[in-house]
Amino acid sequence: MIDVEDLIALVRNYNPKTNADLIREAYAYGKEMHEGQFRHSGEPYFTHPVAVAAILTEQALDDATIITALLHDTIEDTSSTYSEVERKFGTDVAELVDGVTKLTNLQLSSSETKQAENFRKLFMAMSKDLRVILVKLGDRLHNMRTIKSMRPEKQLQKARETMDIFAPLAGRMGMQWMREELEDLSFRVINPEARNSIIRRFITLQRETGDVVHKITNDIRTELEREGIEADVFGRAKKPYSIWRKMEEKQQSFSRLSDIYGFRIVTKSESDCYRTLGVIHQRWRAVPTRFKDYISQPKTNGYRSIHTTVSGRDGKRVEVQIRTRQMHEVAESGVAAHWSYRDGVRAQNPFAVDPAKWLAQLTERFENSDDHGEFLEHVKLEMYSDQVFCFTPKGEVIKLPKGATPLDYAYAIHTRIGDSCVGAKVDGIRVPLWTRMKNGQSVEIMTAEGQRPQSTWIDIVVTGRAKAAIRKSLREEDRERFVRLGRELARVAFEHVGKKASEKALATAAKQLSLPSVQELLARIGSAELSASDAVKSVYPELVHASGDVDAKRAVLGLSEDQTYNRARCCQPVPGERIVGITYRGKGVMLHAIECPALEELESDLDRWVDLQWHSGPHGPIHAVSLDVTISNDAGVLGRLCTLIGDQKANISDMSFMDRKPDFYRVIVDADVRDVEHLHALMLAIEAESDVARVRRFRDLSKKP
C-alpha cells in the first residue's frame, strides 16, 4: 500500500501548494474507517482507495478530488456519515463522496428498465460535478487491474459492464489512455484466448524483426534533429484489444494488419506540428486517406492533434500523432484537464474544455425526456443509440437517424448542398457516400457546380427529407429517362399478367392512382416512387394475385433486352433487398446488395453501375443464401435442423462443416428462399430451436466477382 507521504509527494510533483495536512487527515480517517475490512485478495481494503487516489494524481487533479478518492467508500461501507465528512473535510468533498456513493449503488448492468433509470441518475451525478465520474473511473480502473481475485462469474459481469459503459464513457471524456486500458483489461477476461494469441504473435514478430519501435523512434528523432525541430518522440505497440477490434472490423488476419505501431511527437509550438508533418511526409510515404487534422478541427472534448499514417521500415504502416505539450495534456486527461494543476496553480490550458459546456452538449438532446427507456436508448454505449449526432466543421450539431449516411447529412444542412454533393470527408478522411455515420463524427461535404443527384442515391439515404429532395431533383433533371424506364417496367409488369401496357390502360392506371397524366405515372414508376405492380393492380386487381411466381428470367427490372444477370456470391442478394447492378466484361450484370463492401472498390467507376430493382411480384424459392449455424453436438440435432428448414418450405442445396468441437458443430447451410421475408422467417424458426446456439447470415467476401 502507498504510504501517505508517498501519496503527498505524487501530488506535490504538480501542486507544491497542496494542503498536505488535509490529505494526511483524510488518509488517516479513511484508514481508520476501513479498519478490519479486506478485499477479495486478502489485502486490507484501504489499499484500494489509496490506489484510486494515486491513479488520479496521474491526471494532476485538485486536492478535493484526491481526498474524495481516499474517502469514496467511507459513507457506503463504514460507519462514517455525510455530515461527519462535511464537518471534517468541507461541503465540496462531502458532496463528491456522496455522488460517488450513489454511483456505486447503481446497477448499470441490471434489467433494462432499472438500467435506464440508473443511467439517468448517472448523468444527473455528472451534471452536478464531473469529478464524481473521474473518481468512479479511477475506482473502476483499479478494480479491473485487480479483478483476478473475484469469482469468475463476477469477473465476467464486471468486464462486460466496463466494456459497455465505463470504457466508452472514458473515451467520450477524452481520456483515451484510460479507455484503452479498461478495454484491454476487460478483453483479458471476456476473451483471454484471443488476447493471448495476439500477444504471442507480437512476440514472434519482435523476434523476427527486432525492436521496431526503438528503431523507428530513433529514425524520427534523427529526421527532426536534422531540421532543427525540438520535440519528444514516443513509440508503442497498440493494445491487444485495439488490434483485435481492427482484425474483426477489417476481417483480416494479424499478419495482414497494418499500423499496429503508434508514435507520438510532442512539439513546442503549433507551427512546429506542421513543420514536423512535412518532415515525416518527406521521409516516409504517406498512406492516402489516413490523415486527420484535429488541430484545425478539434474534437468536442478538446482533443487536438495531427494524425497521419506512413509506410515505415520494411513497408510496415505506422500511425504518427503530432501535437504540442498543451494539446498533449488535454489528450491525456480529456475533460479532466479543466481541474489539473501545475506548480501549485490551476493550469491555464487554452485547449481544456469547460466541463459544464461539454456536458451540456452531451445531454441537451434528452434532458427533458420523461421516458426512462427512451433515455437509455440515447446513452447506452456511446451515449446514443437510435440517433446519430454529427458535427459540422464549425462544430454545430446535426441530428440524424441511426444508419444515416453523409448524403442524409448533406440534405439535412440544405437541399442545395445535398443536390450538388460529390463526396464527403468524415473526421478528415474521404469516405464513400453510403458510409453509415457514427456519433461524434465531424463531416465535411464536398460539392461541385453542375452535379446533380443520381438515382442510386435513393437506396443510400434513409431520411424522408433526403429521399423527397432526391426524387424531386431526379424528376426534374431526368424526367425523360425515367419515363422511358417507367414505360419498360410497366410493359414487363403488364405482360406478366397477360395484358398490354397500352396508352388507354396506362391512362386508366394514372386516373385510378390520382395522377395527372400517363407521363407522370411513368416518371414515378421509373424513379421508384411507385411500383409497376401498383399500376397493374389499379387496373387488373383480380389478376395480380392469380399470376403465380415471377418468371426467373424477368425477376430483375431495369436490364436491357440483351443483358443477363447473376447474383453476386459475396453478398447473395434476395428479392426484397435493395440492389445495384455492376457490369463485368464477359459476365453480364452482377447483382450486389447495396451495402456490399465490394462496392467500395467501384465507387469511382460509376459508369459500370446499373439502376436495378427486384420485380415486386411473388418469387420462387430459388435464391440460395448461406447461413452460419452453430448447433449442439448431440444425436439427431442435425437431422432436426434439416427437417426444420424443410418445414419452412426452403430447400437445402449445400452444407459444409466449418468447425467440429466436442460440444458443438458450426455448419454452413445453403438454403433456397423466395425473398427477404422468407429468409427472415427461416432464420427466426432456426433461432427458436433449443439446440441452436446461433444463426446468422454468412457472406464470404473472398468470393467477390
TrEMBL record:
Keywords: Hydrolase, Kinase, Transferase. GO terms for biological process: guanosine tetraphosphate metabolic process; nucleobase-containing small molecule interconversion; response to starvation. It catalyses: GTP + ATP = guanosine 3'-diphosphate 5'-triphosphate + AMP. In eubacteria ppGpp (guanosine 3'-diphosphate 5'-diphosphate) is a mediator of the stringent response that coordinates a variety of cellular activities in response to changes in nutritional abundance. Residues 626-700 form the ACT domain. One of its GO terms (cellular component) is plasma membrane. Residues 45-144 form the HD domain. PANTHER family: BIFUNCTIONAL (P)PPGPP SYNTHASE_HYDROLASE SPOT, GUANOSINE-3',5'-BIS DIPHOSPHATE 3'-PYROPHOSPHOHYDROLASE. The lineage of its organism: Bacteria, Pseudomonadati, Pseudomonadota, Alphaproteobacteria, Rhodobacterales. It comes from the Bacteria. Transmembrane segments: none annotated. This is GTP pyrophosphokinase rsh. Belongs to the relA/spoT family. Pfam families: ACT_4, HD_4, RelA_AH_RIS, RelA_SpoT, TGS. GO terms for molecular function: GTP diphosphokinase activity; guanosine-3',5'-bis(diphosphate) 3'-diphosphatase activity; kinase activity. Its EC number is 2.7.6.5. Residues 382-447 form the TGS domain.
